[in-house]
Amino acid sequence: MIIGIHNNYENLSFNFGPTLFLWLQREHPKIVRRIIEADYISTQRLSGHGNALAQVYNHIIMPLASRRDQLTEIRWAKDYFRSCYNREAEGIWLAETAINMETISCLIEEQIRFVVLSPAQAQAVRPLDGLGDWVIHDGTIDTRKPYRMYSYASDGIRRGGFIDVFFFNESLSREISFGDILRDAHRLGERINTCYSTTQSVMPQW
């Protein structure tokens, strides 16, 4: 028996591509209103930062596209996001989390502040102050911390700007997508709690 309904989008990050969201607006407008409302509620709790992320407009694999097309995808994504949530997008979801240095440059140019990537995409990290050694990673990077990527030209010279990165927890993602952890809310909550850290540390850079 259902004894109550809670809008989970108030408490987790999420993204919708324009194709799906336009269909929802047409077929299930009440759901869309609840999703937009959830993002607004999250901005009140998070000092203006909301739970919703933008998504590249056409689910294009960004590194396979020209620079012009990548900028177009980001700009369309930002414009659509603004029309839905009435605020500027801070983060973006890239199709298949595909990224390269050109994509990083485009995201920085379009003032995207953070992106979500797979832990397998992290090659090496070091402390943000640049004083420590680079540590090579094999997909086991600590996903409880944010990281920072700088843009570099082909000659290895650093360009201006940076973008922050959150690596998703791959094991938790796999359990939710392909396991049975969603059968028990208490078990899911306990599993999510194991992914948090109560200590603060220096943000490394990649």
Describe the overall structure.
The model has no long low-confidence stretch (mean pLDDT 90). 35% of the residues lie in helices and 18% in strands. Strands 1-2-3-4-8-7 form a 6-stranded mixed β-sheet. It has 2 domains: 1-117, Alpha-Beta Barrel (TIM Barrel), CATH 3.20.20.370; 118-206, no CATH class. It has helices at residues 18-27, 29-45, 67-85, 101-109, 170-178, 185-193; strands at residues 14-15, 52-55, 91-93, 114-117, 124-127, 135-136, 147-152, 158-167, 204-205. The longest helix has 19 residues, at 67-85. The chain has 206 residues and is an alpha/beta fold. It is built from 6 helices and 9 strands; from the N terminus they run E-H-H-E-H-E-H-E-E-E-E-E-H-H-E. Strand 2, helix 3 (67-85) and strand 3 (91-93) form a beta-alpha-beta unit.
Helices and strands in order:
Elements: E1 14-15, H1 18-27, H2 29-45, E2 52-55, H3 67-85, E3 91-93, H4 101-109, E4 114-117, E5 124-127, E6 135-136, E7 147-152, E8 158-167, H5 170-178, H6 185-193, E9 204-205
Parallel strand pairs: 1-2, 2-3, 3-4, 4-8
Antiparallel strand pairs: 5-6, 5-9, 7-8
Helix pairs in contact: 1-2, 3-4
Q: Structurally, how many domains make up the residues? A: 2
The general outline is: globular
What is the alpha-carbon Rg in Å?
18 Å
Question: Helix and strand succession?
Answer: EHHEHEHEEEEEHHE
Query: How far apart are the termini?
Result: 48 Å
Question: Any idea of the CATH class of the largest domain?
Answer: Alpha Beta
Structural class: alpha/beta
- Could you give a short account of the major beta sheet? 6 strands, mixed
CATH topology of the largest domain: TIM Barrel
